Amino acid sequence: xxxxxxxxxxxxxxxxxxxxxxxxxxxxxxxxxxxxxxxxxxxxxxxxxxxxxxxxxxxxxxxxxxxxxxxxxxxxxxxxxxxxxxxxxxxxxxxxxxxxxxxxxxxxxxxxxxxxxxxxxxxxxxxxxxxxxxxxxxxxxxxxxxxxxxxxxxxxxxxxxxxxxxxxxxxxxxxxxxxxxxxxxxxxxxxxxxxxxxxxxxxxxxxxxxxxxxxxxxxxxxxxxxxxxxxxxxxxxxxxxxxxx
Length: 245
Prior knowledge:
Blueprint: H1 18-28, H2 35-60, E1 69-78, E2 89-94, E3 112-115, E4 145-150, E5 153-159, E6 169-174, E7 184-186, E8 193-197, H3 213-226
Helix pairs in contact: 1-2, 2-3
């Protein structure tokens, strides 16, 4: 009788953590116990991840949806200025600094900035703060609402008598340089849990990182090609022998 043994391998269907990628690269260069080396590799992984995302956008004109994140940003009112304030505009600003988006070559900070909601969201156009007052003079354009990103704060310019003058939060969607895990918050108006960013970062190096499975090989290759193991990286830690050698 011939018995066939079938081995079932369960694949973890989650994204790799940055610590996992760093550990694999550090072991491959036989410096797994060096803290400075692991820090340098970690920065290189983040750098090359954003580099691949930008290169993909340059080639195809879009960013993969699996690499995008969606955050709800709380807004507060802020003064419009001290000179020639006519009172016809309302300026809102994000409560905290927003996550820094990956730099793309479309000259837009985010892929999407819109009002909250699923059925009736309103897309908010990007207009530089210095030129927002002239936006209404463009043919076919209105001056209802626009946004700008200044010093990593999100600013919203709204017409005072507009229905949008009472908005308290907006949605930003894009790939980000340092993807973070955001605590869920149960909102009062919807009764559901949404992604909320108010500066409370819970991300650690052992959490899932926004690296898709097909990007790991390219990131490892780029890191190993750029990494110079001959550079001496010293620290005050007590050296321990590498048992993997």
